[in-house]
Amino acid sequence: MKITIVGSGYVGLVTGTCFSEVGIDVTCVDIDRNKIENLNKGILPIYEPGLEEMVHRNMQKGRLLFTSEISEAIRGSEVLFIAVGTPPDEDGSADLKYVISVARECGKYMEDYLLIVTKSTVPVGTAKFVRQAVQEELDLRGANILFDVASNPEFLKEGAAIDDFLRPDRIVVGIDSPQAEELMKSLYKPFTLNGHPVIFMDIVSAEMTKYAANSMLATKISFMNDIANLCEIVGADVNNVRKGIGSDSRIGNKFIYPGAGYGGSCFPKDVKALIRTAEEYKYPLRVLKAVEEVNDSQKELMFNKIYKYFKGNLAGKTIALWGLSFKPLTDDMREAPSLVVIKKLLESGAKVRAYDPVAMQEAKRILGTSIEYARDQYDALVDADCLLLITEWSEFKFPNFDIIRKLLKEPTIFDGRNIYDFMEMKRREFNYFCIGINTGL
């Protein structure tokens, strides 16, 4: 089987590479010619554990190709995935111009039956616009070619995307024709041999499932952050509360860790888009609006603690920052809490010296020379007034506290992910401030 993936960003590249890994011939398309040139040289535009090796292996075997010409890629393909970006408009709604542009290209160049699948996260009802755009281009050509449209939302966790794709919890597919269903069954057969289910449903429900899933996870995070903030006020320990509620099988222990707020390319954008969709139908999603509000304020929490600790005088202070990416195992800094904290620290006159195991180049692209970049995690600490941890990379979890004490001007740590034990830090005589435990700030 031959398929085409249009869009060679995070979703498109992971999707195409994983399909090629099971023997499918894949051509990835992107209008960014520089990106395609780099990919053909084996240079990836993103960091994802295990992806680079898999890309190189399948390129060498001739199963994974990269081009900027969709007219070439579409020839002979049975399935085409749309995996382009859907950035938020100013009102929070998803911008579909790239999705519709690909649909029109399909109508211009398809020669035989084609199943067009939206892999991008798109608002409910997008499939009808895709179908309309394809048909308009076919009509302009006077071509009578059958095609189907389907929805196949991605559920990839950055940092674990390869495993998520090869061993998925579930595969959601929205279809409206038997032919489309059979094609998708055939395509995903290698991934379902171990019992992973393909859940077929109507297209609108599939589109809604993606937004509902991400919004539910974002809700759990904001709920726990809200509870953590209350724990600080009343004197409870949020870590004990988390264990107490997480043992309830109806709640579970995932996504209930308090922190500095969620970020990334999915949760913030998808929550906004679903809120906007609801508004278009005159239905207010009150819970999700609160989720977004809590998250926005949570990203400022660690700055507020630092500001209060230094009694509002941050001018000339040097803050050592560990972690720039929005989560570990990725260089993605989209909507990262670190960006909010850095902005407020700089506005208050502080200096920031940061280190991240993977996201340093991305940080330099975004922040330029506004902050200092350390060679390693300990270099960031030299003569700094405090340490602020924002991203819970594994190498930060068991540091040498004697070195930290020696390098900092004073032994002060602000832990935005609660990765250190409060009582241990107290025994070590650190000034330690985390989330959800009353530490005096």
Explain how this protein is built.
By secondary structure, this protein is of the alpha/beta class. The chain contains 17 helices and 14 strands. The chain has helices at 10-21, 33-40, 51-60, 70-74, 97-109, 126-141, 161-166, 178-192, 203-234, 238-246, 267-280, 286-298, 301-309, 337-347, 360-367, 401-407, 422-427, and strands at 2-6, 25-29, 64-67, 79-82, 114-118, 147-151, 171-174, 198-201, 318-322, 351-355, 372-373, 386-389, 412-415, 431-433. It has a six-stranded parallel beta sheet, sandwiched between helices. Helix 6 (126-141) links the parallel strand 5 and strand 6. Helix 5 packs parallel to helix 6 (126-141) and helix 11 packs antiparallel against helix 12. It starts with a strand and ends in an 8-residue tail after the last strand. The relative contact order is 0.09.
